[in-house]
Amino acid sequence: MKNTLVTLLLFATLTISGTAFAVEVAPRISDREIVERLTRLEERFARLEEGQKAMQRHLEQRITGLETRMDDRLDAQWNLTLVLIAAIFGLIGFVVWDRKTALKPLEERLGRIENDLERDLDLKSSDGSRFTRLMEALREVPPPGGAAG
Q1: Least enclosed by CB within 10 Å: which of 36, 52, 55, 147?
Q2: Where is the signal peptide (predicted)?
Q3: CA 37 to CA 23: how far, in whole Å?
Q4: Rounded Cα–Cα distance for residues 8 and 3 (Å)
Q5: Burial of 69 (C-beta count, 10 Å sphere; 0-12/13-18/19+)
Q6: Residue 121 and residue 131 in contact, taking contact as beta carbons nearer than 8 Å
């Protein structure tokens, strides 16, 4: 039992010390190498910033182009709306004009008929209308064939 305990203790010691040997010692870096690496990092960082600025300019150009196209389309749409409104007002004006021109001959004809009736019937006469006077005159005329009756 004593042997197994010693063996176990020896095995544990070797195992624990073996993990300590697994750490690799880093080589010493000189100040010059540190400065060179920092310089390269700064250069890369500057290139990244340039790339971001270029992307920003590109996006601004695209947005400006889109705004211009949208403004052009809105102007075209507004012009089309104005044309449609003008066409609607023109149509309304045509309908009103057509109504007046269509009714004018009818009004003139009705006026002529009214004047002809007033002239023929002579409604403003103090003796009555011409029709009434003709009826009176026909009543006074003896019937044809004499008064044999």
Answers
A1: 147
A2: 1-22
A3: 24
A4: 8
A5: exposed
A6: yes
Q: Is residue 15 part of a domain?
A: no
Domain extent, residue 125, equals: 39-140
Say how far apart CA 78 and CA 15 lie, in whole Å: 85
Q: Does 88 reside within a domain?
A: yes
95 located within any domain? yes
Rounded to two decimals, what is the model's pTM? 0.44
Helix (H, G, I), strand (E, B) or coil at 57: helix
* 122 conformational bin, left if phi > 0, alpha if psi -120 to 50, beta if neither: left
Going 110 to 115 to 118 to 121, the CA torsion angle's sign is negative
